[in-house]
TrEMBL record:
<dbReference type="Pfam" id="PF03965">
    <property type="entry name" value="Penicillinase_R"/>
</dbReference>
<keyword id="KW-0805">Transcription regulation</keyword>
<protein>
    <submittedName>
        <fullName>BlaI/MecI/CopY family transcriptional regulator</fullName>
    </submittedName>
</protein>
<dbReference type="InterPro" id="IPR036390">
    <property type="entry name" value="WH_DNA-bd_sf"/>
</dbReference>
<dbReference type="InterPro" id="IPR005650">
    <property type="entry name" value="BlaI_family"/>
</dbReference>
<comment type="similarity">
    <text>Belongs to the BlaI transcriptional regulatory family.</text>
</comment>
<keyword id="KW-0238">DNA-binding</keyword>
<dbReference type="InterPro" id="IPR036388">
    <property type="entry name" value="WH-like_DNA-bd_sf"/>
</dbReference>
<keyword id="KW-0804">Transcription</keyword>
Length: 128
């Protein structure tokens, strides 16, 4: 579709981030209808439910039945969602070592130092 009426295409995962951010800003569990209202932008109710279902499968939201609908609660933050994506990419590759090596060698020095520190902290937590 071209022309004035064309909607700009969202980046992959953008709606997930928007939905998770809205849930995290809420003062408690919320319905898909509430999220639809918060997000605006002409999103269909079914689109919001689809995104919530995907987030549920990723373990970053939980749901509990409330009457005929569900109440949704965040179980992770945006960093947790990004980490899930990283795990998914890594799990889909045959040579995990090559993927990790390529990732690490491409890191800027500051990120490499941060990663080393985080790995040290994780090791300390496992040991103690």
């Amino acid at each position: 579709m071209t022309g004035e009426g064309q909607r700009s295409r969202r980046r992959q995962g953008e709606l997930e981030v928007l939905v998770l951010s809205a849930l995290r800003s809420a003062d408690g569990p919320r319905t898909a209808g509430w999220l639809k209202e918060q997000l605006g932008g002409g999103l269909a109710y079914t689109t919001v439910v689809t995104i919530l279902t995907r987030l549920l499968a990723k373990g970053v939201v939980t749901r509990e039945r409330s009457g005929r609908s569900f109440l949704w609660t965040p179980a992770a933050d945006i960093a947790g969602l990004a980490a899930h994506r990283m795990h998914k990419v890594l799990n889909n590759e045959a040579d995990r070592g090559a993927v990790l090596a390529s990732f690490v060698t491409a890191l800027p020095a500051e990120d490499e130092r941060l990663l080393r520190e985080l790995l040290r902290q994780a090791e300390d937590q496992r040991e103690g």
